[in-house]
Amino acid sequence: MMSSQEVYIVLSNTGTLFTSLIKTYTRAPYNHASISFDAELHEMYSFGRKNPRNPMHGGFVKEDILTGTYSRYKETTCVIYRLNVTEREKEKMKRILNVFIKNDDKFLYNILGVLGVSFKEPIEFSNSYFCSQFVAEVLQRSGIKLWNKLPAMVTPDDFRKNEQLEMVYEGKLFEFEPIKKQL
User: Fold this and answer.
1) List of E strands, the chain
2) Cα(151)–Cα(170) distance, rounded to whole angstroms?
3) Are the C-beta atoms of residues 155 and 28 closer than 8 Å to each other?
4) 3-state class (DSSP) for residue 109
5) Coil/strand/helix, residue 125
6) Could you tell me if 88 and 31 are in contact, meaning their C-beta atoms sit under 8 angstroms apart?
């Protein structure tokens, strides 16, 4: 029998202009999704800003809460979910992630995909993802099926409403105890 492992899905709202525009349309409390492989959120990945100071340059990112984009938005709110997976599923996720890490300069942010979700029409390009599409894709390729929809149609709110995810924390990101210990 394989041992149980955990991965974490982090949904957040930094309050930036872009996220405020998305929130106006979705009316959802969180509009960014990331995946983490540790409870302290040291190893966290998504699609978003490559440079915290430049919202127009996006792609695959290893998110660093203390020095990356989040460090500029101290009032960021979040909800953190735990997903129990098998050791094999987690290993698959890490192998998939290594492809992104080794080729990070080849991936773009799928802004048209975000628009496609609002029109209920998936818009997919090779090597192009938006945040929740990326997280859903990593899970799906690892054999974890949380929905009966394409990753290109998954929103951060779909994670929030999924009963297979266990809420660990909700509140301000910088008040999450493992983050506070790092400050």
Assistant:
1) 4-13, 32-36, 44-51, 54-63, 77-86, 108-109, 128-129, 166-172
2) 24
3) yes
4) strand
5) strand
6) no
Q: How confident is the model at residue 2 (pLDDT cuts 50, 70, 90)?
A: low
Is the Cβ–Cβ distance between 32 and 104 less than 8 Å? no
Matching residue, tokens 């951060």: 156
CB atoms within 10 A of CB 107: 20
The pair of three-digit structure tokens given for residue 8, joined into one six-digit string? 């974490």
- Round to whole Å and give the CA distance between 71 and 174: 9
Output the pLDDT for position 115: 84
The CA distance from 133 to 151, in Å, is: 5
pLDDT 10s digits, 30-85: 999 999 999 999 999 999 988 877 777 889 999 999 998 899 999 999 999 999 99
SS3 label, residue 60: strand
d(CA 174, CA 75): 8
What's the whole-model pTM score? 0.94
In the predicted model, is pLDDT for residue 25 greater than 80? no
